[in-house]
Specification:
By secondary structure, the protein is α/β, with parallel strands linked by helices. Helix content is 44%, strand content 18%. Helix 6 crosses helix 7. 51% of the residues are buried. The mean pLDDT is 96.
């Protein structure tokens, strides 16, 4: 039976805590979420029938501040997946030094199978159900797989209607017109590109000689691809859920983006040859960016992966077995809790701007993001060297240590 995401998150945690001197019971406390909400709610569909949806919201830890985490709409959403993502969010926020704990939410559904009206009704009802946990000081949702600016606008409006006044700081990833932040839509991909540039320096690979492969061409993969291309790298393959395209001489990413917007997929792009997602992961390249779903590289295909650097744009794209194989082969892995932390970092900037009703320029946001990502990358790389561990374990050690420090300083209530 395939190991689920939460079991993987716990294995990563258990590996990291071996390097930390913890007070008895502290590891047990951090292995479990603080609170979990399961909601089953009815929605009237367009044909007049009533359908019951199941949704989740999990808070892993609140020692560093209010909880932060995306809301995922996908048919495969499970409580264990949401638990894992919430836990990873706790370490991610701590790694980049922003004052949040980790949370995650999800609804079991296929958003593509719902009409716009059904999607809005379902979103507003889910927002109402989880509003017992939500607030700008308590829990701040954001977009994730299957959700975006539109859904965040609906959630913000629903929460505001219940309060009787506008509360823009209750969610991040909103449209600019209602308190969203400049730079937010590209932020996760920008973080992937920034950390990739740092890894190329570490491996002494000139960026203009780097061949990059990107799995997933959505909100993370597309900006990561065109931003790394703008720095001189050559993107030789890209894929989405329907398949991929490959051109050893490089793909013009902005052109591909325009094609995908028109045709609904990268498949069929005339200036590259077709390739499957499985083949794409095994291409010889300098950088592989898995920016799609969890568990894409496993013990089965890891021996055939030929990238020098793996930049984890997605959450949990490598299993622990794949990790072991790839680290053993000398692959430099930029772990997800560092690599894709650009999104939560700029979400934090958005929240701060909403709270003070004062907004920054895009250049200022991008520069602040760059500084945080580079500083965090170097901190983790230094810790990996000192502890003689891989980058993922070093990132987990750093995140866990910061949360533990906050818990110990605050004390155990009562």
């Amino acid at each position: 039976m395939e190991e689920n995401a939460y079991a993987i998150a716990l294995r990563q945690f258990d590996k990291a805590v071996r390097y930390i001197d913890l007070k008895p019971g502290m590891a047990d406390y951090l292995r479990v979420p603080k609170r979990e909400l399961i909601v089953n709610f009815p929605v009237t569909m367009d044909d007049g029938s009533v359908r019951v949806f199941t949704g989740y919201r999990v808070h892993h830890n609140t020692a560093l501040g209010p909880t932060k985490g995306g809301i995922r709409y996908h048919p495969s959403v499970t409580l264990d997946e949401v638990r894992a993502l919430a836990m990873w969010m706790t370490w991610k926020c701590a790694v980049v030094g922003i004052p949040y704990g980790g949370a995650k939410g999800g609804v079991v559904c296929d958003p593509k199978a719902l009409s716009l009206r059904e999607l809005e009704k379902m979103t507003r009802r889910y927002a109402t159900e989880i509003s017992v946990l939500m607030s700008p000081q308590g829990d701040i949702p954001a977009p994730d797989l299957g959700t975006g600016e539109r859904e965040m606008a609906w959630i913000m409006d629903t929460y505001s209607m219940h309060r009787g006044y506008s509360v823009p700081a209750v969610v991040t990833g909103k449209p600019l017109a209602i308190g969203g932040s400049l730079g937010r839509s590209e932020a996760t991909g920008r973080g992937v590109a920034i950390t990739t540039l740092e890894a190329l320096k570490r491996k002494n690979i000139p960026v203009d000689k780097a061949r990059v492969v990107v799995q997933g061409f959505g909100k993370v993969g597309a900006p990561a691809a065109y931003l790394i291309e703008e720095r001189g790298a050559k993107v030789i393959a890209v894929s989405d859920a329907n398949g991929g395209v490959y051109n050893p001489n490089g793909i013009k990413i902005r052109e591909l983006l325009a094609y995908a917007k028109t045709c609904g997929s990268v498949v069929g792009y005339p200036y590259a040859e077709p390739i499957t997602n499985a083949e794409l992961l095994e291409l010889e390249c300098d950088v592989l960016m898995p920016c799609a779903l969890e568990k894409q590289i496993t013990a089965a295909n890891a021996p055939r992966v030929r990238a020098a650097i793996i930049a984890e744009g997605a959450n949990g794209p490598l299993t622990p077995e794949a990790d072991e194989i790839l680290v053993g082969k000398g692959v430099f892995i930029i772990p997800d809790i560092l690599c894709n932390a650009g999104g939560v970092t700029v979400s934090y900037f958005e929240w701060v701007q909403d709270l003070q009703s004062f907004f920054w320029s895009e250049d200022e946001i991008n520069e602040r993001l760059r500084q945080i990502m580079v500083r965090s990358f170097n901190h983790i790389a230094r810790l990996a060297y000192e502890k003689e561990v891989d980058m993922r374990t070093a990132a987990q050690i750093l995140g866990i240590q910061r949360v533990v420090e906050a818990v110990m300083i605050r004390g155990i209530y009562p």
